[in-house]
Amino acid sequence: MASVDTAFELEKKGTSARIYLDGLTGLRGLAALWVALWHLWGFAGRPSYGFDLGGLHLDLTPLIRTGWAGVDVFFVLSGFVLGLAFCQAWLGKRPPLRLGDYFRRRLLRVLPAYYVQIFLLVLVLVLTGAQLPSLGDLLPQLLMVHNILGSPDSQLNPVYWTLPVEFDFYLLLPVLALSIAPPRWLALLLGAFVLVLAYRYSMFTFFVQDMSTGMKSWWLNQLPGRLDQFVSGMVAAWLFSAAREKGLEKSRLFRWRGWLLFVGLGGIAGLAWYIHWRQPIGAVNVEGLTYWGGHWSLFLWNSLAGFSIALVVLATALGTRLTDLLLANRGIMYLGLISYSLYLWHFPLVKWLNQAGLPVLVGQAPLLNGLLWAAVPVLLVSSLSYWLVERPFLAIRHRSS
């Protein structure tokens, strides 16, 4: 376990804000696990999943089928963690960030594991005799502009769509950070919310309304379609920084942390059950009635989810007994440590295992059966990707420029 301890120390020393919060590492791990569980559920045939407790049936299907919201968690967390460094600089707790060093750190964080996976996926295609991607499809992915010059079908890995959106956030952050301090942070949040609503509604109405569900998702989720989630994380970082400046235990925000967590988790659960009720599994998309048909939730669900997640992130940063217990333990924190590689590798591994036609271990439980087959390979490959690819470059990234 010494090597794991060293990895955690590396993470702590490498935080540009000079503040490391165990619970947020654990939350990152749960977000990656949530996305992976959603894809497993899809390959399992999207079954209903629940259990009986004291004569009461608890249906967990809504939480599993909205596992794509793990990406929402990533976007909010990025806004918080990266915004925190700018907030600390604004408060004089650390020197101002140098843009060259900032972008260098971002490139070393994202690109190595991404490029290694692209190489290995292309190698698998060559060895299996499958069709190789054209240079016109591969080059935008290498340059991380496939959100503009690509499509869902051109991606080597379906999860890649989030990476250029995230990278666009990195490019915008130094500009957005100019408006994070009072009294402008509320205007920044409201402005981002209005911009996202206008973008998603106009994009749907004038461009993607008659497209397939996949293309609707592709275009509606591009920048600025998720900008308010990133900004929600930034605002949470400012509120945390301001409370920390006063002394956490003396701040009103610290006394409200339990309520922040309760409202945030309630919002996430409520949104999950609402969308499940609004569009049951197998429902036919009818314009104006279902999510992808133009229901109001298509334009506001992610915004409301991002706000709820930001409350959870803020409460976790402030520290509660529940978040410390569930998120700040070594097992969940290790998932957070390897979360980027876990996010990259889970889909191709689950897809290959599903194509292999593996025997059924647990009858009448396809999701559990898939989980039993996938857990070890996904964790093993993700761990290897972290230790052999991510960690060496993280060590380089964390050296002072």
Notes on the protein architecture:
The two termini are 30 Å apart. The protein has one domain (2-398). It has helices at residues 2-13, 22-43, 61-65, 70-90, 99-128, 135-142, 146-149, 162-176, 185-208, 213-220, 227-246, 252-255, 257-278, 297-318, 321-327, 330-337, 339-355, 366-398; strands spanning 50-53, 56-59. The model has no long low-confidence stretch (mean pLDDT 91). The chain has 401 residues and is mainly α. The chain has a two-stranded antiparallel ribbon with strand order 1-2. It has 18 helices and two strands. The protein is 70% helix and 2% strand. It is globular and about 60 Å long. Helix 2 packs across helix 16 and helix 5 (99-128) crosses helix 18 (366-398).
| End-to-end distance | 30 Å
Question: How many β-strand stretches?
Answer: 2
Contiguous helical run count: 18
- Low-pLDDT parts are none
Largest sheet properties: 2 strands, antiparallel
If strands are numbered along the chain, what order do they take across the biggest sheet? 1-2
Class inferred from helices and paired strands: mainly alpha
Percent of residues in β-strands: under 5%
Shape: globular
Can you give the helix content as a percent range? Answer: over 70%
The run of helices and strands is HHEEHHHHHHHHHHHHHHHH
Mean pLDDT: 91
What would a concise description of this structure say?
This protein is mainly alpha-helical and 401 residues long.
Helices, strands, pairings?
Layout: H1 2-13, H2 22-43, E1 50-53, E2 56-59, H3 61-65, H4 70-90, H5 99-128, H6 135-142, H7 146-149, H8 162-176, H9 185-208, H10 213-220, H11 227-246, H12 252-255, H13 257-278, H14 297-318, H15 321-327, H16 330-337, H17 339-355, H18 366-398
Antiparallel strand pairs: 1-2
